[in-house]
User: Which sequence fits this backbone?
């Protein structure tokens, strides 16, 4: 079969990055940075997810069609979050509307 | 119809299997091909591409499945940020971190299992990586069981016996409803993953995988890594938001 054979060292490097990310996210959580806590937490989690998707799940070497399908899942997720939160975040902005 | 592209791919990667001809010469059965190539596919590359796309399509539905729960989390946390922090503070960050590490290691062993099949290593090597992955997954579930037991003991399982000594009992109950729904659904995926891995391990043991055919390991790996990714988001959102919370 086809498929790009990545060197073992690459898998260990990605693994090390994931462990460092986990340590970082736990460490940062104990420091009160206000809203930045959420930004950092989700930033690190997204980076870790991206590393897993690109390298462990081989999307880095997959066809364009696989890229599109994988990306579409996250696009729909953002539509779900985006449209729902435009509702919840703006409730009560106009006088007389439900809070 | 055989496309120019698939013929190109085939010549490039499978010189040992002559391309099947459109019209069979009289007297011959059919063109030689890999034993695991199903007849409705042109070649092994196309067959694997179809399986990979199928799994990714399923994973997109899974993203939306878990996405609904993350959406609920976002809405309720937005309504009571303090309550969620207080509730999260009660979760044991030690178990959470340990479980995150276990899942990340299991993703590594899974990736190495796929690589072992891809590089035609001995079935024993493939099985070794697969079994390591399963042991780590089982360890994750064991720790989850310890955590759930503590929650039942402390009466912080939502329902008539929910008891919360804090400033925000209602948001805490909402938080723990989401905690059990999200980690429960995730744990169910882990259990299903262990079942899939058992089948894959048996197949590997029976010498079914090598560099020319390893689609089942690859596709099972995609599922396993996806479950890992869900946890990568669950861990900080559930365990870490209340670390610097001070009551009052």
Assistant:
């Amino acid at each position: 079969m086809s498929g790009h054979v990545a060197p073992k060292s690459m898998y260990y490097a990605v693994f090390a990055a994931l462990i460092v990310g986990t340590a970082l996210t736990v460490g940062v959580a104990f420091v009160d940075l206000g809203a930045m806590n959420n930004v950092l937490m989700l930033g690190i989690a997204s980076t870790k997810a991206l590393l897993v998707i690109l390298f462990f799940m081989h999307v880095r070497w997959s066809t364009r069609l696989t890229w599109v399908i994988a990306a579409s899942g996250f696009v729909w997720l953002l539509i779900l979050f985006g449209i729902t939160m435009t509702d919840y975040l703006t409730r009560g902005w106009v006088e007389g509307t439900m809070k | 119809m055989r496309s120019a592209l698939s013929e190109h791919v085939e010549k490039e990667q499978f010189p040992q299997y002559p391309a099947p001809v459109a019209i069979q010469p009289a007297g011959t059965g059919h063109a030689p091909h890999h034993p695991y190539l199903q007849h409705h596919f042109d070649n092994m590359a196309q067959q694997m591409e179809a399986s990979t796309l199928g799994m990714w399509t399923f994973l997109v539905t899974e993203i939306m499945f878990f996405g609904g729960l993350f959406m609920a989390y976002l809405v309720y946390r937005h309504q009571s940020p303090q309550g969620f922090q207080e509730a999260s503070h009660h979760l044991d960050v030690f178990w959470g971190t340990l479980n995150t590490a276990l899942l990340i290691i299991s993703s590594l062993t899974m990736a190495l299992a796929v690589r072992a099949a891809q590089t035609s290593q001995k079935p024993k090597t493939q099985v070794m990586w697969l079994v390591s992955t399963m042991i780590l997954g089982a360890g994750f579930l064991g720790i989850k069981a310890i955590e759930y037991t503590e929650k039942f003991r402390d009466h912080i399982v939502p329902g008539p016996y929910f008891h919360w000594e804090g400033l925000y009992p209602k948001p805490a109950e909402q938080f723990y409803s989401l905690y059990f729904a999200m980690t429960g659904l995730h744990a169910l995926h882990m259990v299903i993953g262990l079942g899939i891995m058992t089948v894959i391990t048996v197949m590997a043991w029976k010498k079914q995988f090598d560099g020319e055919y390893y689609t089942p390991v690859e596709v099972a790996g995609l599922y396993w890594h996806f479950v890992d990714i869900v946890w990568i988001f669950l861990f900080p959102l559930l365990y870490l938001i209340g670390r610097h919370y001070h009551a009052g």
Notes: Chain A has two domains: 1-62, 63-99. The CA atoms of residues 26 and 83 of chain A lie 31 Å apart.
